[in-house]
């Protein structure tokens, strides 16, 4: 068994920034959701085939205390640098082993980025 995808809500005004976060900061590949979903859905894929789907909504979004946790392998420092370059503020958790950075994406979702155990 493995995770196929998560679907996260994004306000339409933040969609482009969220797409930039997934592709530019995390390095995910954009997928074509097909013609029936192309207007309302954005899909991204990790190298292992698991996906993040974006759904537009104008409803208020509350994601805390929930979060999305990723094992980013040896790329934690590199990803933190891309996040800072994108104007985001990753917070490295002091004294944590393995190393962990927390960052809020443009839509307000909390991501836990973990080095390998």
Automatic annotation (TrEMBL):
Domain VOC positions: 2-116
InterPro entries referenced in this protein's UniProt entry, alphabetically: Glyas_Bleomycin-R_OHBP_Dase, Glyas_Fos-R_dOase_dom, VOC_core
Pfam families: Glyoxalase
Protein name: Unannotated protein
